[in-house]
Specification:
This protein is an alpha/beta fold. It is 45% helix and 20% strand. It folds into 2 domains: 124 residues, Response regulator (Rossmann fold, 3-Layer(aba) Sandwich), CATH 3.40.50.2300; 98 residues, Arc Repressor Mutant, subunit A (Orthogonal Bundle).
């Protein structure tokens, strides 16, 4: 079956260019010209991939991404922006975007990015399925993860995590005792290799510590390994 691509952009010339080239590459293409319509199609048409412009009428790209992820819609998203702003990229990645492209771009590059992200997403899904098939519950001290249900408990209390926070915690837990660099975590959880974006790992680690115990200065589970990265370890009695 053809992969379905949702293009959300308010510039008709870009929509037509992407629609033609994506169709030629073997994709089925549906389009939306504003954020509200794009969000509706993402929720009802079940696309395999979303090309999402940052600046949109009615609902901007950041808000569309945020609401989709809050609604547990995990379709891969490639954000398109007219400016190369690192802060925009970090915010977009925090909200759940899979990658960024800056205008102007070539259709060939867009298609290559889409195919690469879809391949990485399939590998990530296989990896998570392996973890789920191996064990339906993971325990580290007072921390309990249920991979199949995407639920996390700490001291018997359910803690609310975003998808990326959960995936990061799951990856750290699966590799308990191993020191993982920020670059490794980016590649494995966000599937990125951008050295300038390693701050996003620090932000998510800080949020996990805050949600788990409230003590970000003396963390009991996720240890900082200075100059390298982080390590999940059993709490000391």
């Amino acid at each position: 079956m053809k992969k379905k691509i949702l293009v959300i952009d308010d510039e008709p010339s870009i929509v037509m260019l992407l629609q033609y080239n994506l169709s030629q590459a073997g994709f089925e293409v549906i389009t939306a010209m504003d954020g509200e319509e794009g969000k509706r199609l993402a929720e009802t048409e079940f696309p395999d991939f979303i090309l999402l412009d940052l600046m949109l009428p009615k609902l901007d790209g950041m808000e569309v991404c945020k609401q989709l992820r809050q609604n547990k819609i995990m379709t891969p998203i490639l954000m398109i922006t007219a400016k190369d702003d690192v802060l925009d990229r970090i915010l977009g990645l925090e909200l759940g975007a899979d990658d960024f492209m800056v205008k102007p771009f070539s259709p060939r590059e867009v298609i290559a990015r889409i195919k690469a992200i879809l391949r990485r997403n399939e590998l990530q899904t296989e990896s998570i399925n392996e973890i789920i098939s191996e064990e339906t519950k993971m325990e580290i001290g007072d921390l309990i993860l249920f991979p199949l249900k995407f639920e996390t408990y700490f001291n018997g209390n359910l803690i609310e995590l975003t998808l990326k926070e959960f995936e990061l915690l799951l990856y750290l837990s699966k590799n308990k005792g191993r020191v993982l660099s920020r670059e490794q975590l980016l590649n494995s959880v966000w599937r990125h290799d951008f050295a300038e974006d390693t701050r996003i790992v620090d932000v998510h680690i800080s949020r996990l510590r805050e949600k788990m115990s409230g003590d970000t200065k003396n963390p009991a589970y996720i240890k900082t390994i200075r100059g390298i990265g982080y390590k999940m370890e059993e709490p000391r009695c």
